[in-house]
Amino acid sequence: MPLMQSGGRQQSIIVTGAAGGMGRETCRYLAQLGWHVLAVDHNQARLATLADVDNVTTLAIELIDNELLSAVNKRLDAMPALWGLVNLAGVSVGDSIEGLTEVDWQTSMDVNVTAPFRLIQGVYQRMAKDSQGGSIINVSSPVGYIGARKPSYSASKAALHGLTTSCARNLGQYNIRVNLLLPGTTITEMTKDWDEERRQAIAKESLLGRLCTPQEIAESIAFLLSSHSRYMSGSILDMTCGSMWGH
Questions:
Q1: Which of 140, 168, 182 is nearest to 233 (CA)?
Q2: What is the number of structural domains in the chain?
Q3: Would you please indicate which residues are annotated as catalytic (active-site) residues?
Q4: Is residue 139 a contact partner of residue 117, using CB atoms and an 8 Å limit?
Q5: Using one digit for the tens of pLDDT, what is the confidence trace for 90-136?
Q6: Domain with 33 in it
Q7: What CATH number is associated with residue 141?
Q8: Are 27 and 21 spatial neighbours (Cβ–Cβ below 8 Å)?
Q9: CA distance linking residue 33 with residue 4, whole number of Å
Q10: Residue 247 pLDDT exceeds 50
């Protein structure tokens, strides 16, 4: 059975972090399913690889840019009704607590938490008006629960969880669902640079003994956007394949 979209009409999805490995696959897959995608990323070169994909509109901008919402809304004005927002972008900067600077701490919070907050606050009314509802997905990390060497990264991802559940409470009255996705270690540009020994060691932490693929992340995001997840809000979709506690 194909994934069901709301109302069977053309609708748009915003995807941040669209130029990354998971982001590009997500944009392509959502467009293939019939959604119109606004692909947002600061990396113009990699974002350009999506420019020729049908039903994908690109926007090259920093998430911390004060003009982000204005630029997003300008693009959306020329697109079908907004149904979804996927906050996939994230940054991992900083050091352990001994060497962590306030600049890196603030950058982590600005990109990983404040940008999703601004986008959610800035587009929920459009969703409620144009689509009579919607679906928002915040992409987090297991380190938001179990910690990491970089407190700036793990703290920002923990904050994203709190933002998710709180917005789910706030926006349910508008038929807008808000959920959290926890990806496992996924094969992207970063993991391709790892040597085979490291890849195998991390893969063994998974109950299936392998890394996740960008396609599997894209399919999970599509599920959370679709009507098949219509009674899920404030939920956590765990895609770590049992590896969370050994992360």
A1: 168
A2: 1
A3: 153
A4: no
A5: 988 889 989 999 999 999 999 999 999 999 999 999 999 999 999 99
A6: 9-185+217-238
A7: 3.40.50.720
A8: no
A9: 9
A10: no
